[in-house]
Amino acid sequence: MSDWTLMHLFVPGVPGGAPLRAVPCGTWQRADVRPGRAMAWAVLLIAPLLAWGNPVSTEHVTARLLAEHDPAVPGQPLELLLSLEIRPGWHTYWRNPGDSGEAPGIDWTLPQGVRAGPLQFPAPALIRVGPLANFGYSGRALHPVRLSIPADWPIGKPIPVRARAHWLVCEEHCVPESAVLELTLRTAATAGPSDPQAATAFAQARAGLPVGTLAGAVLVQSPGGLRLSLPSAGLGPAPSAVRFFPWSWGLIEPAADQPWRLAGDRLELDLSPGEVAATADPGGLLSVQGADGSGRSFEVNATRGTPDQAVYQAAPAAAPTLGLPLALAFAFLGGLILNLMPCVFPVLAIKALSLAGQGGLGARERIAHGLAYTAGVLVFFAGLTAILLAARAGGTAVGWGFQLQYPPFVAIMADVFLVLGLSLAGAVTLGGRLMGLAGGRAGRGVIGAFGTGALAALVAAPCTAPFMGVALGYALTLAWPLALTVLLALGLGLAAPFLALSLAPGLARRLPRPGAWMEHLKQLLAFPMFATAAWLVWVLSVQTGPAGVARVLAGLLALSFGLWARERTAMARRGWPLAGDAAALAGLAVALWLGFVIAGASAPVAQAGDPAAQAGLPAQPYSPERLAQARAQGRPVFVNMTAAWCITCLVNERVALTATGVVAAFRAADVLYLKGDWTHRDQGIGAYLAGFGRNGVPLYVYYPPGGEPRVLPQLLTPGMVRQALGSAPADPR
Questions:
Q1: Statement: the pTM of the whole predicted model exceeds 0.85
Q2: Are the beta carbons of 665 and 729 closer than 8 angstroms?
Q3: Partner of 146 at 20 to 30 A CA spacing, among 289, 380, 504, 596?
């Protein structure tokens, strides 16, 4: 509907000059008029807006209906042209008028057998009206129409054409106008010449019509807005200005700027989403202006897709078609396998001690330990799911393992593992008592089992196991109750082995009895905790550089000193225990403060010592442009999505991607090796993962020349990589 308001219109000759009141949305409200004069009112009102003839001049527009040839030839189409010469300062509208307005239309009265096609719309101009914008024409609007004449039309018999055209013409206010245009076409065996005036008008009209259709365009919607990506090869000379006009209202904000850039062989435009951006037709018209001032336009048949599909149509994600029962099964199986993943190695020490401690427990206490451990895992996964879904509801795209993308969290985790290591080594007793690793009462042991389960889930969370990635990608597309169910199934799979040992009497009898050996084992297992803390400091070196490492090391030193002071004064007399507690709290406060301010450290430095590069397989940083360029050149591409905090990723690189046979296969096939580092939060990498139904790393994708992408398993062997490259059959090595 048009969005115009007719201003007060005084009709001469009507007593008192009574105004015709107007209301928005093009509806008129009748003034107080005596019934006897209703017909006079109607005639006086319609007369300026509706006229007959060819041409027809209204108050603001002169309308003409032109024929390209006279006479016309039966059996051959004839081009007609609706010409609207518009009063200066006024404008008419394109097929999508923008923020307000209404497109022109035409109703035909034609002899039987003669057919008229739809009005065609040349590329419009952007017409700003305050904070809003319209798509339309100023000066002159030319709309071609194709007329079909049947082949059996008698030669010499004229063709009467009658068309009622209607349009909305606007300045600061809008007026609906219309005219009945009549044209009599002669017919002959050969087409007649074009009138010079008509020929000029037709040439101008055709110059504004789209010169072609751009296929392969993708419209991507994300929390940051809309991005239209389309191939630049068919655009001709390098553009100096571009503008996208959507077919449908509500896809974009018409008045918003449209920043654009050439990225490889693609043209990308950033668009502001409109009111119905998620459901409107993604297609439209691209208007391009060359450096020489010439203009041209293209129809854009866009499809909706993921950000990676904006540069290459990747294989559709399998996750959306997974189904809830299969997702639950995959999540549980992935949780089971997660116990064997390198990510969980740091807490195997605590698991081993927990199992060893159950050897001397009764059945009831053992079951309580197992249930408490499971509860700790499930509570952590429930909390993590709530954070993920809350972030998604707020329009923020976060992925699995997002917590380790934030340096303050990594720093605090380093503090936690240092304390655990000191506790297991016997340097302090605080950590051991809290985690229930020092034995004691059953209630304390249950609390410790709960904490052990939560810690195991916390350390395992950044990793993805086989079957797990697809289930996670599917879960985060569901409503929150179903998403929570899938994530709890994952946690149940992680806790299942420990729970089975707690509930099965036969397995419990095989557990060793507690003894002095447990103390030696506990001290030995302190070193995996220290190794984990050191690894987290290395992750911080990648994220924040030397300044961040200095801060976290200072925090670890302060925390260690505070715990040491507390331990040394715990058995002293008078006020020394209180002083020791104060020292421990001060050390903890310093460590936490340095951890939280670590985000302000200097920019990350380039990561050195890449094992693949050392093995002769240098990687280029992943970008959609590099991928698109290589695909356009027909070059094979191997994409490795990884992160410094993903131990499985690092193991795969050391074991599979740096093997001599793999490096040789990459070189022989001239494979471009692209590496996406998700150590820091990166929307582009997150979108790439989502394009394959994944929500975390690792992800390995091989693009063969001219073929569909192939997703490799999350646990790699050299044989798997070589098989994907087509250089060798699968083998277990």
A1: no
A2: no
A3: 289
